[in-house]
Specification:
The protein is mainly α. It contains five helices and two strands, in the order H-H-H-E-E-H-H. Helix 1 crosses helix 3, helix 1 crosses helix 4 (78-102) and helix 2 (37-44) packs across helix 3.
Length: 121
């Protein structure tokens, strides 16, 4: 896994985002065992406690399921994965709208931009 971190946010939050994206994209499919905390921490070059915090949040978000004997696996609940994907997509759209509004564009104009972009694909 190619880990990329920036200095603008806590690393554990960036880890959550990167692992979530991999789950949503199917790189870690439903039911698949996730690598262990120490293995992921070594790959990412972070403290195991930092990785543990991120993994615990994935469990709290419902994307991972923990088991004492089997470690953590990706949830098999497709509705949870779909809800997380939808939330991420809505956040991306909201961010785009916020930027366009900061530039002085109306939501109607933003919709025009989106339609134009879709037509050029």
């Amino acid at each position: 896994m190619d880990w990329q971190f920036t200095d603008d946010r806590p690393i554990w939050q960036q880890i959550i985002e990167q692992l979530t994206l991999k789950i949503l994209k199917g790189e870690y499919p439903p039911g698949e065992r996730l690598p262990g905390v120490r293995e992921l921490a070594a790959q990412a070059g972070v403290n195991p406690n930092t990785m543990q915090r991120a993994m615990a949040q994935l469990e709290a978000d419902g994307l991972a399921v923990g088991s004492r004997t089997a470690g953590r696996t990706v949830t098999r609940d497709a509705a949870v994965i779909e809800a997380a994907a939808k939330a991420r997509a809505k956040a991306a759209v909201a961010g785009c709208l916020r930027i366009l509004e900061e530039l002085g564009y109306s939501r109607e104009k933003a919709l025009e931009f989106l339609k134009e972009e879709l037509e050029h694909e």
